[in-house]
Amino acid sequence: MVECRVDTRGGGTGHIGSEWDAVAGMPTRRVCIRDSSSTAFWQLLVWLYTGSLDADLPTEELANILKLADLYRLPALHAECERVLSSHINSDTILGLLQVAIDTHTVDLELACLRFAVENMTALRQHASFVECSSAEVMRKVAIALASELDYSRDRIRI
């Protein structure tokens, strides 16, 4: 990235980012993007330049893009990822997407995940991901949603 070039001589040359840097001995500072796949970062750049995402991205990549949108404070990309990820909720992805929603403070995605969990609790409890889930926060949110639904159902029966 051009922004990584550092002019240590103090006199700006106006040649930052050119072949002249190597000749002048200008040091280069590398920027490492961690916790993101190259596909997700590429899609972030595509979004910045075009305002669109590839339609056939897998759930995991969309979740990574959502994390990048949260990290770089891109509300439009955040909203688009949230919208698309809501359609990817199923028994295989529910707990992972709920964790992403909690981490990125994505309220609508979190509510969609919890709604799916409540409506499909029997199938979810039998799924391997439920048994293997080690996130106390995810399990707490699911339990609260289920308890809330039970309270609501109990109140409707009494009326």
Offer a quick outline of the entry.
The protein is an all-alpha fold. Helices cover 64% and strands 0% of the residues.
Description:
The protein is an all-alpha fold and 159 residues long. The chain folds into three domains: 1-31, no CATH class; 34-88, no CATH class; 90-159. It is built from nine helices and no strands. The protein has helices spanning 20-24, 38-50, 59-71, 75-86, 94-104, 107-119, 121-126, 128-132, 136-158. The chain is elongated. The mean pLDDT is 84.
SSE layout:
Elements: H1 20-24, H2 38-50, H3 59-71, H4 75-86, H5 94-104, H6 107-119, H7 121-126, H8 128-132, H9 136-158
Helix pairs in contact: 2-3, 3-4, 3-5, 4-6, 5-6, 6-9
Range of helix content: 55-70%
Would you tell me the structural class of the helices and strands? mainly alpha
The coarse overall form would be elongated
- The Cα radius of gyration reads 22 Å
Distance between the termini: 65 Å
- Ranges where pLDDT stays below 50 over 5 or more residues in a row are none
Q: What's the SSE pattern? A: HHHHHHHHH
What is the quaternary state of this protein?
single chain
The pLDDT mean sits at 84
**Content of β-strand:** under 5%
In this structure, how is the largest beta sheet organized?
none
Number of domains as seen in the coordinates = 3
Please give the count of helices. 9
Q: Total strand count, please?
A: 0
Features:
single chain, 159 residues, mainly alpha, 64% helix
